[in-house]
Amino acid sequence: MRACARFAAACLLGVLAMMPRVAAAADLVVLTNQGATPGVKELAAAFERASGHKVSVIQVEGDALEQRIASGSADLVTANPPAIDDLVKKGKVVGGTVTPFVLAGLGLSVRAGAPKPDISTVEAYKATLLAAKSIGYSRGCSGTNVAEGIARLGLTEQLKAKTIFTSGSPVADHLARGEFDIGIQQTNIMVGVPGTVYVGPLPGFLNKPCPSSVGLLATSKEPAAARAMITFMASPEAAPLLRKTHVEPAIP
């Protein structure tokens, strides 16, 4: 097993080494959505090493994202499909460049020191939700998928009074502050948050992942380098780097 891992790592390094380096390195800026940020940072570091370009990753959403795009100071943007499709319609993203690259599954965490609930099966997860004093999730893609799962379990009305919706920061940050007892969001932004303990992924059909795509901003000043990064982000060589951040590469 270790030999296989070393061989895979050697193959990856070989592929990265073969990517052409440029005489005049570009400074790329990637605007990311919350659920894609850890994976994009991992890919950006690898792309920098391979290409010689510099890549800055900035997590920004809502009005701040619109302002950054309008300023023309970025090259790439990642977002969930509906959001990136809207940017294409507005002419802010070059449509032919939009590329799915990551799937972020859902996970559950509790506050540090609290007992770990059983979520190993759909029935166990259902019982855990019913027993919880309070539950927190966002109104974004993960929250939409969590709510959809709760509806399929027939628990929407039963859980309404103890459900708290978060905004502005990851669910685990609110959980660490004691705003609720159980937090649910994408696993990649739940694992390792101080003051919380990650319990595990949601079981079965309840674990509906959140996809993210990347696209070239129409105002990019470095379109060639940006397109090269898009190609790398969706390549087979990017897959093990994404998995390091608890996500899966998008299925072609």
First and last CA, distance: 27 Å
CATH class wording of the largest domain: Alpha Beta
Mean pLDDT figure: 91
Number of domains: 2
State which percent range the strand residues make up.
Answer: 15-25%
Uncertain spans: 1-13
Percent helix, as a range, is: 25-40%
Label the overall shape: elongated
Q: Could you say which structural class the secondary elements and strand pairing correspond to?
A: alpha/beta
Quick structural overview:
The protein is of the alpha/beta class and 252 residues long. It has helices at 2-18, 37-51, 62-71, 81-89, 122-131, 141-152, 156-160, 171-176, 223-233, 239-243; strands at 27-32, 54-59, 76-79, 99-104, 106-111, 135-138, 163-166, 182-186, 196-201, 210-216, 248-249. Strand 1, helix 2 (37-51) and strand 2 form a beta-alpha-beta unit.
Structural account:
The chain is of the alpha/beta class. Helix 2 (37-51) links the parallel strand 1 and strand 2. It is elongated, with a radius of gyration of 19 Å. It has ten helices and eleven strands. It folds into two domains: 2-103 and 211-249, 3-Layer(aba) Sandwich (D-Maltodextrin-Binding Protein, domain 2), CATH 3.40.190.10; 106-206, 3-Layer(aba) Sandwich (D-Maltodextrin-Binding Protein, domain 2), CATH 3.40.190. It is 40% helix and 22% strand.
Q: What are the SSEs and their pairings?
A:
Layout: H1 2-18, E1 27-32, H2 37-51, E2 54-59, H3 62-71, E3 76-79, H4 81-89, E4 99-104, E5 106-111, H5 122-131, E6 135-138, H6 141-152, H7 156-160, E7 163-166, H8 171-176, E8 182-186, E9 196-201, E10 210-216, H9 223-233, H10 239-243, E11 248-249
Parallel strand pairs: 1-2, 1-3, 6-7, 6-8
Antiparallel strand pairs: 3-10, 4-10, 4-11, 5-8, 5-9
